[in-house]
Amino acid sequence: MTLLILVGLNMRTGLTIVPPVLSNIQHSLNLPGWFLGSLTTIPLLCFTAVSPFVDRLRQKFGLIRILSIALLVLAAGFFIRVYSFELLLLGTLLVGAGIAVLNVLAPAIVSTFFPNKIGVMTSVYSLSMTIFSAVSAGISAPVASQIGWQTMFQVLVFFPILTGLVALATKRYQAAAPKTAQATTTEVPNANVWKQKTSWFMTGYMGIQSLLFYTILTWLPQILVDHGLSQNTSSLLLGVMQLAAVPMSYLIPIIAGHRQRQAPLMLMTGLLFLIGLGSLLIPGTSIGLGIFSCIFLGFATNSGFNMSMILFSLKSRNLSETVAVSGMAQSMGYLIAAVGPIAASMLYSQWHSWGFIIGLLMVMALLMLSFGLLLDRHQYFFE
């Protein structure tokens, strides 16, 4: 369980710490304005490029070894990305590659070590991811104003190194894992994952919920600033959004794990997105309205993510199916997601208004719901 908690800690912290200090990074490194959205988009492209290869690497080198290498890559990215524009770009690529592996392997860790507690253990790493990403988003701007964003970024190196040490210690436990769990690693999907329509439904759901999350994560602070709030207040409200996600990180995997059909949870998630995004269309500078929006967006984004994560396990019959569908859905899904932050940046630079962009995001939430309902009609990915 300790390993799951630490993996969850590393899955988003290095990303959510960035948006509140985008202006600080721009001024320090003399970055062009168009590049700012890329700091969120580049990791998503890394997720797309790396995810399809994770299963092959796992089969060849083993789960723990690949996990440990990914954590070292993540630590290197955290350390070097503060020195120059070029190293910021390289470090962001390394961070994206490291997190891509964690994204795919997190459900595999659950299936390997806790095959009979999928809902509860998915909740464990999701809850950890949510809490620590909330803390990093909320304190990013205030801490950066005290110690500088460069020092703040480099402190993160400690976490993947610690997680890597715990992963290596866990390797001995893996050798003694129950035979029922180990047996699943040798099973293979019954058919080509790319030819399963259910895999494409999963990809659509995963991709759009990711697009919504990363677009909101990147630009919500700027939207709130344009509503008249200060940078520090906007940073804290981004932290509120992440904290609001905490109950969903605990509840959604457990509830979903005890249900045969997930349609009610998917309908609830779609409604939460519509309420949260719709409230951002209301003009004004009220902190109360900002809190309301962030709470509902926190509920929505984390419900969508957790539904995606637990479906990888619930609709698979063995570890290989889990990793195969997870790799495909996260590869193509994050390619879809990468469009969001940069497209929002381009649209805003043209119109200097968030209204149309928020409307498009609401349409995407309805499309996400449609993919989810189609997927819910099938018991397994490979039928």
What does it look like?
This protein has 383 residues and is an all-alpha fold. It has a single domain (2-376), classed as MFS general substrate transporter like domains (Growth Hormone, Chain: A, Up-down Bundle). 81% of the residues lie in helices and 0% in strands. It has 16 helices and no strands. It has helices spanning 2-16, 22-29, 38-61, 63-80, 85-113, 118-147, 149-155, 158-175, 179-183, 197-226, 231-244, 246-257, 263-279, 287-314, 319-351, 355-376. Helix 3 (38-61) runs antiparallel to helix 15, helix 6 packs antiparallel against helix 14 and helix 10 packs antiparallel against helix 16 (355-376). The longest helix has 33 residues, at 319-351. The chain is globular and about 50 Å long. It starts with a helix and ends in a 7-residue tail after the last helix.
Any descriptors?
mainly alpha; 0% strand; 383 residues; Growth Hormone, Chain: A; 16 helices
Explain briefly what this protein structure is.
With 383 residues, the protein is mainly α. Helix content is 81%, strand content 0%.
How many structural units, i.e. domains?
1
Mean pLDDT: 85
Could you tell me how far the N terminus lies from the C terminus, measured between alpha carbons in angstroms?
32 Å
Number of strands: 0
Helix content: over 70%
Give the helix/strand class: mainly alpha
Estimate what percentage of residues fall within beta strands: under 5%
Biggest β-sheet strands, sense, barrel: none
Number of helices: 16
Q: What's the gyration radius in Å?
A: 20 Å
Q: According to CATH, what is the class?
A: Mainly Alpha
CATH architecture: Up-down Bundle
